[in-house]
Amino acid sequence: MNDLERAVEAALFAAEAPLSAEELSRHLGGADVAAALEALCAHYAGRGVELVLRGGCWHFQTAPDLAHLLRREREDVRRLSRAATEALAIIAYHEPVSRAEIEAIRGVQTARGTLDVLMEAGWVKVAGRREGPGRPTIYATTPAFLAHFGLESRRDLPGIEELRAAGLLDPVEAVFAGHMDEQGHEEADDESPLDESA
Q1: What CATH number should be reported for the domain whose range is 3-68?
Q2: CA-CA distance, 39 to 94, in Å (whole number)?
Q3: Domain boundaries along the sequence of the chain
Q4: What does the angle CA 80 – CA 120 – CA 160 come to, to the nearest 5 degrees?
Q5: What is the structure's pLDDT at 171?
Q6: Which of these, 18, 61, 142, 161, is most buried using a 10 Å CB contact count?
Q7: What is the pLDDT of residue 194?
Q8: What b/e readout covers 145-154, taking b as 16+ CB neighbours within 10 angstroms?
Q9: pLDDT value at position 23?
Q10: Helix 82-94 crosses helix 112-120 at what angle (to 10 degrees)?
């Protein structure tokens, strides 16, 4: 391990938050840290801690298969409500997105507290205002969202085929297909005798 790799390693261990390559470079006097980061990734691969890139920033994390050993007591997991889960998914896949756009996709009104919960968790942030009537606030995900779900970037979000394979779309598709069938039957029942003879 050379001096630059040691310096990058020390800077990452001492940092209070994940650092981008640019921040590391500035901190280390403009050094090119790309090769050092690559070497450190290889060095820590398969160890108890790993060097990972999440949301464009580097940090050390416990190897996922060992995380359970470090929990001293069982944590109370605060589950997101269905509304919050749906809003988070919409923001992640469509960001930046306004409250009205979230509501249009969900088909129901979104309570103000729903977005507050996501912002308190650190997974969603205000990303500015949309140009247009009323200049609505728009929301986007944060690097903490990517880190929590183990994503390097939003490109790593599962696609439709992966979601279908995991069984996450089947109930929705079944309900949608059933709804379309019902509408088809209603339309058929509404047809007049003139339509049938035409």
Answers
A1: 1.10.10.10
A2: 35
A3: 3-68, 82-156, 164-188
A4: 45
A5: 53
A6: 18
A7: 41
A8: bbbeeebeee
A9: 92
A10: 70
Backbone phi, then psi, for 100, in 5-degree steps? -60, -40
3-68 and 82-156, same CATH topology: yes
pLDDT at 25: 92
- Please give the order of strands across the beta sheet that includes 124-129: 97-98, 137-141, 124-129
- For domain 82-156, give its CATH number from 1.10.10.10, 3.10.105.10, 3.60.15.10, 2.60.120.460: 1.10.10.10
pTM over 0.85: no
- Across 65-194, where does the E strand assignment appear? 97-98, 124-129, 137-141
Tokens of 89: 């998914």
Instruction: Count the Cβ atoms, other than its own, within 10 Å of residue 93.
Output: 13
CA atoms within 13 A on the CB side of 141: 25
Rounded average pLDDT per 10-residue block, the chain, 198 residues:
90 89 91 92 91 90 80 59 88 90 88 87 91 89 87 82 67 50 48 40
